[in-house]
Design goal:
single chain, alpha/beta, Leucine-rich repeat, LRR (right-handed beta-alpha superhelix), 3 domains, seven-stranded mixed beta sheet, four-stranded antiparallel beta sheet, 10 helices, disordered N terminus
Length: 462
């Protein structure tokens, strides 16, 4: 491709097909996107499409390694809750269009752009309006070569906590404030000199005068645009060959809603027609905890942080819980009964995990009806009717017989403290079904049974 052809190409900007292609983590739904990565797409502008489609929900936007030349206010105006904007390795020469994000934007990365000292003061003024901005990266820009670059930023941006990956100390900020007056004067002089130099360069280009090879730099906005367009042409040729085998999903909310409801209905029918069984179609990672919060089952399902909650459906039943995530069923049979109406489902704002808290059924004794008792074979709160106590052993799960004969007390108390040792021979049962126990008293107790002095003796200690 010749230089003339590359310069006359239509600038590439963000399209709806490109957004769908990069939103597979959200099932291709663009209106609920919270995170979007569009790096290395040879973009020259952001355009209006992105803000109109997902500007109300987008929180993280990654646009690094493109050739975007301007932060156009018309393109950024539609973003309402953007927290992190990455425009590293682009052709940005001035910071603009961000004042409406003063309550949301927390991190801005503009590493390796073309912000020079002539636009530095105005760019910092734009950043000063962002009261929630905590992390800023401007390394690799021409303005970063000025020795007063860091103290000037610290003096003008008191809300900043990290600059170019380095934490800002209190003493450093105080020193920056003390030298701000001289820094501002120095920056004004440098800006005028830079503007004059750039004006002369523009006149040289218009006049067609050859430049010295030592003055030409390959790292310039014009050179990057030319290389980007060449790469875009190669990518287009490659994609045209692969188009038959791959197409981004084109799914709207109405179609997905139908698929999601259909998956829920199929899960309900399977629960009505057959025995409830565990199922994990989406291979979701989860934990079921009953120890951290006594009296509760806490189910923690690992979901992507920026997965839209509209893709998740939760239904808690007394004996099982059903979750449909992106039309994939996760069903778990609970060890014991829970209070479905009192259960709570929440999404973690930090990790995106789905956490469902399900209180166990608290049982009380009722002598009129069948009493409920706990079985160690399940959890502490798992219960069964007291009538079943004759059918199952609470410890081993085997058949029980009615209690007959004496209680075995051998070994409960040490012999030295008056306990009973193991009997050497078996003693027949009496008519009452009781065994005669021979005892040996310790020395502190009178053991003379032949002489009856009429005094009452305490019973033997066991």
């Amino acid at each position: 491709m010749s230089l003339c052809e590359s310069e006359t190409m239509t600038p590439r900007y963000i399209t709806l097909d490109l957004i769908r292609k990069r939103s597979e983590h959200n099932e291709g739904l663009v209106s609920t996107l919270e995170e979007l990565s569009l790096h290395q797409e040879e973009l020259e502008a952001i355009g209006p499409v992105l803000g109109r489609t997902c500007g109300k929900t987008l929180q993280i936007l990654l646009l690094q390694n493109n050739v975007i030349s301007r932060m156009e206010p018309s393109s950024l105006r539609s973003f309402k809750c953007l927290e992190y904007l990455n425009l590293a390795l682009n052709n940005i020469s001035a910071i603009e269009g961000l004042h409406h994000l003063q309550w949301t934007l927390e991190k801005l990365d503009l590493t390796l752009n073309f912000i020079d000292v002539d636009t530095f003061a105005d760019s910092v003024t734009e950043l000063a309006a962002l009261s929630h901005l905590k992390d800023l990266c401007l390394m690799g820009n021409p303005c970063a070569g000025w020795k007063g670059y860091r103290p000037y930023l610290l003096a003008r941006l008191p809300h900043l906590r990290t600059l170019d990956g380095e934490a800002i100390g209190r003493s450093e900020r105080i020193r920056a404030s003390q030298t701000f007056g001289s820094l501002e004067t120095e920056l004004h002089e440098l800006a005028n000199a830079c503007k004059t130099k750039k004006a002369l360069e523009q006149e040289t280009k218009k006049d067609g005068q050859p430049q010295n090879d030592n003055d030409v730099t390959h790292h310039s906005p014009e050179t990057r645009v030319r290389q980007s367009r060449e790469m875009a042409r190669h990518k287009a040729e490659k994609e045209s060959l692969q188009r038959a085998n791959y197409q981004p999903k084109k799914r709207d909310e109405e179609k997905f809603s139908f698929e999601h409801k259909n998956a829920i209905e199929m899960a309900r029918q399977s629960e009505d027609d057959e025995k409830i069984r565990n199922c994990n179609e989406g291979k979701w990672e989860f934990t079921l905890d009953e120890e951290t919060r006594p009296g509760y089952f806490v189910l923690d399902v690992t979901l992507q942080k920026y997965l839209s909650t509209s893709l998740v459906d939760v239904d808690v039943h007394p004996t099982f819980v059903r979750i449909v995530i992106k039309s994939k069923l996760l069903r778990l049979v609970l060890p014991c009964e829970v209070q479905a109406k009192e259960s709570i489902a929440q999404r973690s704002a930090t990790t995106g995990h789905l956490v469902i808290s399900m209180p166990k059924v608290q049982l009380t004794n009722n002598h009129d009806n069948a009493q409920m008792i706990s079985l160690p074979s399940c959890s502490k709160q798992e219960t069964t009717p007291a009538a079943a106590i004759n059918d199952y052993d609470a410890t081993m799960g085997s058949k029980l017989t009615p209690l007959k004969g004496p209680v075995q007390i051998e070994g409960l108390v040490k012999i030295g403290h008056g306990g009973i040792g193991k009997q050497e021979q078996s003693i027949p049962q009496t008519a009452l079904g009781m065994k005669v126990i021979r005892t040996t008293r310790i020395s502190a107790i009178n053991t003379n049974h032949d002489e009856d002095d009429g005094e009452e003796h305490p019973p033997p200690l066991f």
